[in-house]
Amino acid sequence: MASARQRIWGWYFFDFASQPYNTLLLTFIFGPYVGSVMADGSAAQAVWGFGIAAAGFVIAVASPLLGAIADKAGGRMPFIWLFSLMYVLGAWGIWYSDPQNFNVWFVMVCFGIGLIGMEFATTFTNAMLPDLGTPDQVGRISGSGWAFGYVGGVVALILMLAFFAEGSNGKTLTGLSPLFGLDPAAREGTRAVGPFTAIWYALFMIPFFLWVREPRKPGAVPVRQAAAAAWPELKRTLRSLPGRRSMFAYLGSSMFYRDALNGMYTFGGIYAVGMLGWTVTDVGIFGILAAITGAVFAWLGGRADSRFGPKPVIVASVVVLTLVALGIVFISREAVFGMAVTADSCLPDIAFYILGAMIGAAGGSLQTASRTMMIRQSDPARITEAFGLYALAGKATSFIAPALIALATTISGSQRIGISPLIVLFLIGLVLLVWVKPNGEQAHR
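Above: the chain's sequence. Below: its structure in token form.
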């Protein structure tokens, strides 16, 4: 029987195991690789945006229903096994993205399957958080878990850059040829990010499956019966949301600010490749910096959350991210914040590195505080359904940031202008926080 400490550490390992999908595939290695293979930065940004939007639609529609089924059936672990399989298969499929025979739709389908698996698994593991500690402890537990996840992302990224992902000279960041005889000319070192991510997840989920156990839930019913009853109950929950003003406002707020943050993560690498001419290695270094600040501030944010509550942490983080989004628009190879620079100036690179560190810091603290705020807004008896709604809020408009970026980029023909919709999304999220009560609706606590 696993101890309470082992259960917490087992839960931490999900963040550690799953983070490379965000760090390596979504942001710093595979996204820029797609941009480099397609050559046209604007076209790559548009295709990437529409593909992620499609996966987000599936996640938005299915997450609340799956959460309601799990709450009634009394078991989350079988779902986590299923979604873990999707994660591994989707990530592995990315290997088949040979630049000489690049089928962008096949690649995006594989990427989408893995992304959907990761997001669904996250919904169910997030719902386990309240069982790991008291209300005063969950902020610290959430922050430590998120920080541990960032550590996993940093380590995975360093390994990829040091031993696999080839630069323009065919060598890795350490000056080596890619391991295992991988062919730099066919970009096999970079493409290996898919199998690497799949193996990483399978390996580091072992502590989760060994140590994490769910408490028995009284009144649990078979899955088929739970599925039949889930939709009517979910409809009642959705109809009741406008009457639960604080939770409704929080779901709306997080819907916009998390969409904008995901837009930053998703398009940061592609933006740097197109606007600053960065290589995959450059973007990887940028990712390491952002992940390190993310880990530090997720940990600090968890402590601040336990002391002051999640709302002040969320507000401060969103303000910083709004300013960063504004700053990105004013960085290009020709000028930095309106100041003209020469073609060989390193100032645009330095400025973008600094903004990347700020994205990591504010994003880390924002995400850990956001899931503890969801606990405060939720009915404890229906916590998985609540995190399904949280996933819905995160994904119902998840197509908006990628679609707006894709649309603005297509209309303007400029990657720089294409990023600007993120500013508006952050501001909407900030305004909606005014109606969010720090401890949620008392009737449900």
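The first helix runs from residue 4 to 28.
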